[in-house]
Amino acid sequence: MNEGTTTNLLRLIGVPGTNKVMAGELSRLVGRALGHVRLPVPAKEGLGALTYPFDLETAALAVRYHRTASRVLWGLFQSRAARLEPLYDDLLAAMSAEVRPWFREGTTFSVSPANTRSFAAGGRQMVGVVKNAVIGGAARQGVRLTVDPENPDVFLEVRMHEDVVTVSVDLAGRPMNQRGYREEAGTAPLRENLAAVLVMLARYDARREVLVDPLAGSGTIAIEAACMAQGRPVWVVPREPAARRLAPFAEALAGPARALFADARPLVVANELDPRTHASARRNVANAGVGEFVESWSGDFRRLDPRRIRERATKLGFNPDRGVIVSNPPYGERLDPGELGELYGDLGRWCRQLRGWRAAFLVANAEFPSAFGGRPRIKKPLKNGPLLGYFYLYDL
Length: 396
Ligand SMILES: C[S@@+](CC[C@H](N)C(=O)[O-])C[C@H]1O[C@@H](n2cnc3c(N)ncnc32)[C@H](O)[C@@H]1O
Fold this sequence. Notes:
about 30% helix, eight-stranded mixed beta sheet, 15 strands, alpha/beta, VC0802-like, 2 domains, about 25% strand, Rossmann fold, elongated, binds S-adenosylmethionine
């Protein structure tokens, strides 16, 4: 017999291979904003998902500030049912006994599937079962809920991990990377949360180091670095997390979100060759509110004199002999293999002019390390959407 259970979990979903990074970021945020909360060690659900016992303040903080997660969820119910009927029974029982105040009379909700391919009946039928069980269970409590796929009060998500089905509230109501600052895509923009992962993996120390992206595209890495340094909210006004409209979160998410490290004054340089992409990067930087900290330069990185970077660093009180390059160079959809090898080789030579710095890259091209030269201190598989790439970290 299957048994449905009520759970109470804060769940962070992210890029596979980033559990440590996501946990590190949450500890940093909690340490800064919620001195009285002791964050427990999270449980891992596979390579890109963490769960913590649910705590309202921590969940509110995460959905507002956590930059490396792609979803921030409140796990409500779980079931090991392998077929639709027992899944319905489990969820109906759990929902009939549900006492948490995330729904009230008239609440509208939507249900979306995530990672449900392993369930025998398929995602769409699972969604139907979850909807019916939620409506039926609430009705048993005398509460009328309705489905609104377009503009619901509550975004429910049904997700599978191994043989466990979890129904959660998606607290942001959209992927966390849709922050609201990117008005235009560059040639191959990086997901915002993946850019934040690169900044974390490169161990950027914003108080002491300058960060440079010499092939910055639409500026995502630079923007994420500056935002992270300041602990800025993920969401750019008027965008806000859906949880703001949920009764339990009303107080924790009331009022405008402030930067948690507002006193930090990072220096980030974003350099881009293509004039249109460079113009779009500048707009994105302005939209994200970090124009004061991100310098947008244009041109071929090969002609970018490292002395110019060192001079800016010195002028703004940074050590010019320490810093970090973080970038995701082109992978080759448009360049021929010879040209690409040359570009990686030139990049290696350019970076080595900044002796004492570190350089971190996300690249999905096997030729990169030999063309760039030297040995990376870290090589770690990291997916960029469907592309399997590697994260490389070099000491220059
Ligand atoms: C993969 S994209 C970077 C995407 C970026 N991370 C983003 O999120 O938008 C690589 C970028 O390198 C730029 N690029 C190519 N060759 C360059 C060069 N020699 N100097 C500077 N930028 C260059 C391209 O125009 C492109 O925008």
